[in-house]
Here is the input.
Amino acid sequence: MKTRIGLLYGGKSAEHKVSLQTALAVNKALDFNKFEIYPIYITTEGKWITGPQLTSPASTVEELAFPAQNSQTPIALGTQLFPAEKPEEKRGYDVIFPLLHGPNGEDGTVQGMLEILNIPYVGNGVLASAAGMDKVIMKNIFAQAGLPQVNYVWFIRSEWESNEEAAYEKVEKELGYPCFVKPANLGSSVGISKCTSREELKAAFKEAFQFDRKIIIEEGVIAREIEIGVLGNDHPECSVAGEIVPKKDFYDYKAKYEDGDTGLIIPAELPDGVYEELKALAIRAFKALDCSGLVRADFFLTKEGKLFINEVNTMPGFTPFSMFPLLWKHSGVDYPQLIEKLVELAKERYEEKQKIKYTF
Here is the structure.
């Protein structure tokens, strides 16, 4: 009997287009002989729309977004998302595969809904998703876990608006230049700026606050960008490490998703002992956030050989330019196998949670 998978993609987020690209890649990788695949599209306005079962892989993003054009009927949660009570009932999904990036999808909101509906789903749970989405909370947890990080400060919009000069002075005093300004709750390099002066810092604050009410500013370091994939639940494993070599000043949105203007070195050439340290830190970060399924852990490696964890991405992209699937491919797990492994991990975590008692 085929596993019924609901591909959940789109989303009310600045990363909507990234999600569509991820969904397109994943739907092409799924084995249609093993899975029944159903599209669940969230529009940029937040409307949930389903389409009929996919009988073959979609070849374009437009095909995946077709429910928005052919149907304006929102999902009936009670009949579409709830699992079937009997095997012969042709409704519900065995597993939901959230392919959402950014707020309203990667941040624990959708995961919370799926928990309430008691449906197995791929990827991280509510806590890990929420903490991993908020860079400030994530870094605070990493600090508590003793993970090495670059210096950082953060502000909420009202704090900045009440005294802009004090905010800029704090950045200059505690971090200096260069530094990076980022929205706290966003990914895919959206809204990120590198600053080397007060004028650039002012512009970067304005840019970042367009995308979130909270921003984080990180100390710039001269270092290599090293990434590693983590896969598993209670017993996570790591992929080989990869290195990002941007042809531009830093790895921005366009380089990631549009022109592929970057170099990916897999496996990364690392000094003796660094890979083992990298794996240990990645797994410690995975466990500190109580992650499950998958993460991509991003690090800085200085010329002195010091590692700093930058962040973990709880739903890394699966686009043609994405690092996560490439890391696992070079580790002996090809794309279709990776997708199937994630589905298996979702079921494993679901079964583990069914052991919890809710009465006494």
Confidence is low (pLDDT under 50) at residues 74-79. The domain at 139-146+222-352 is CATH 3.30.470.20 (D-amino Acid Aminotransferase; Chain A, domain 1).
